[in-house]
Amino acid sequence: MMKNIIHNNIFPLKKWRLAGQSCATVLIVLASNYYLQLCQNDFSWELATKFAISWHTEKFLLGAFVLLVFQVFLLSAAGSWLIGTIFYVVILAVLGYANYWKLFYRMEPIYPDDLKMITEFGLMKDIIGTVPFSVIICFAAASIFLFVYAVIKSLSFSKTSQVVRIISLVVSTMLLVYISDFNNEHNLLRKTYNKTAAWIPYSQKMNYYNTGFMGGFLYNLKVTPMDKPEDYTKASVNNIVSEYNKKAAAKNETVGSEQILPNIVYIMSESFSDPLRINGISVEGDPLADYRQIADSTFSGQMLSQNYGGGTANVEFEALTGFAMEVFAPQMTTPYTMLLPKIEHFPSIVSSLKEQGYKATAIHPYNTSMYKRQDVYQTLGFDKFLDESSITDAERPSLYISDEAAYNKVLEQLSDDRQPNFVHLVTMQNHLPYEGVYESLKFPVTGDENQNGLTNYAQGIYYSSRSLPTFLQGLDELDRPTLVVFWGDHLPSLYSDETKEKNSQENLHLTEYFIYGNQAEVTPAKETISPMYFYSLLSEKFNQPTTGFNELLLAVKEMLPAFESGMYYHQGEWQEELSLSKEEEALYHDYQLIQYDITAGKQYSLDTFFTSKVPK
């Protein structure tokens, strides 16, 4: 029977069969595009139907054309209409399902670059559940088996069939390659979309809604990190470098040559945020009591996260490099996977500290493949990367290694006192899923339909908060002074739509942070900032060696202490669109020039602007 199915190939066919299969292919493509739109619109039949046949018919048909090319490619590769169609249906079904859940958890759609995460089986199983994950894996494995079997069997086709098939495969491949260049201004498909599409670069979620899933997906294909500023030249960059290097040199003169360089610890705490700040819910007790006691005694406040419910790597990118996601092209959704692997030298806090004699260690108690961290950390200059395999016999109060165990690993790295250490920890304890994680729940949450998940989440951040004082006490036992920057990467993807409607956009993007020195006096203060300023603030608050780039960041911070796309904290107020004076625009433009220079330009500033050894 299998043999008969496989040999029911499409090269050649009787006219009636070819016509039937052609019609069926078109119907399947239209149905699959409609399905993607359903997933994009929270399975609202009304919205998906209006998009397809009333509001955006042209864009719906353009998306269907792209899917048709993709299906023809699969049919040609398989050599079997039936098997190629099955493989196509499974791929689109999984893609739409993944888009629905990403929107549900993180309020943003699937991007092309997300497909690189397809091998993260463990994380996907934890997110969607064992049963749905097992079903998907079974269907995927079966379809792949059938597809490979069909390809092997197709090698026995007649010469005439092979010629027709190869022509079809080559043409569809060339079309897909051309389509992949969608963001080229000369691309005909992009030009056709532009006739009816109003792109919304500041909101990818709305961009997908407005142009359809396929339109939004194509818009996020490969693109240059930033548009080239008209005045970008070596001279313009050198002028900026010279101005701020002079400021850095003056500050560095106040740093004693005999000063002991402190250990520096970055802690990005998974989903660490304050549920008491969220309108519409009530929490019995305070799960962050220990955290508050520390934060109230030092420099602390709220950090503006780019994403809700996810986007950890982008927050980490800003904190380590000082470069803002908002300045990039909107299609640059994940620099860790789309940008850094392509750049040989990229400045960061790591490179600046290693120049001063620091040893740099990254710790993430999960696997090394997430967001290509293994490659990214190497590009940034870390000496070693410790994953979950390096933390043996660790307590797991949730599905993941506890923060307490991760902190002990940090202390272990700091015990080597022969040179100053920079340790960057990315925790996992409070990663989703949250339902039914803890047996003992001390902080009941009410007012939201997801009360069980939120109550478990509150218990998790309580454990994270409780482990902080012990960790700081461990630092006090070390001979070398230590500076700590602690922050939460984003809110959990738990709050219902009703709860989110009771909160402003920025309130759903603000997490907690503090900057602490165990042998330094810091005047307690509260500020709202972006993570890109952490290293420059460390240098300023604790009189550490600084760089010209850090001085530029401090100047930008005075003007714009926190900003992400659609959220700009300017002069004590939040703005949806940035409005600056001429002087402020000039300063912001200087920052953009430097970011372009490093990420997409000639890197004129690489050797002179990110070093504390600036000319005096």
Automatic annotation (TrEMBL):
Pathway: Cell wall biogenesis; lipoteichoic acid biosynthesis. GO terms for cellular component: plasma membrane. Keywords: Cell membrane, Membrane, Transmembrane, Transmembrane helix. It is found in: Cell membrane. Its main location: membrane. The chain crosses the membrane at residues 60-79, 86-107, 127-151, 163-180. It comes from the Bacteria. InterPro entries: Alkaline_phosphatase_core_sf (IPR017850), OpgB/LTA_synthase_biosynth (IPR050448), Sulfatase_N (IPR000917). Residues 262-536 form the Sulfatase N-terminal domain. This is Sulfatase N-terminal domain-containing protein. It comes from Vagococcus acidifermentans.
